[in-house]
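User: Sequence in, structure out. Go.
Assistant: Echoing your sequence, followed by the structure tokens.
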Amino acid sequence: MNMNNIRRLLVLPAVSLFFSCVYSFQSGSFKGAVSIPPLENKTNNADIERILTEDLIDAFIKDGRVKIKPDGDYILNGVITDYNRKVESYTSEGEIKEYRLMVKVKFSLAKISEEEPEWEKDIQESVVYPISSDETEGVESVASEIKDSLLRLMLESW
């Protein structure tokens, strides 16, 4: 069992406990707490929602400008709308060398008391990974790119 699988086994119960994690921003012009429920998955990859939700939760905690609270003033929803894996390159013998994995997520931030979101953002990222890697490793890499883009949008703009 590799370290990624062990990490997943340890993180999954924690994510289950925090079915909806709540964060409070400590700096910037945004004031309030944000709840992040599990992302909705409208793709054919069963792991992407879990991996991306875990990465987002970890990123907010590691960022240091947020902390877990029992209630949120805002909710950050995410819908994974596209998942596309295609061959990126071939070896000189005509065998597959690398894949490109593209994932698109629609995020929206809304006050808990209102139906209309404060903002909506589409984030699309892609990564290239070698055939020797497992597809899950590609999913983890693209999830990391998406969470980095979301953090930049949310935390650096406030």
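User: And one key feature?
Assistant: Residues 5-20, 22-27 have pLDDT under 50 and may be disordered.
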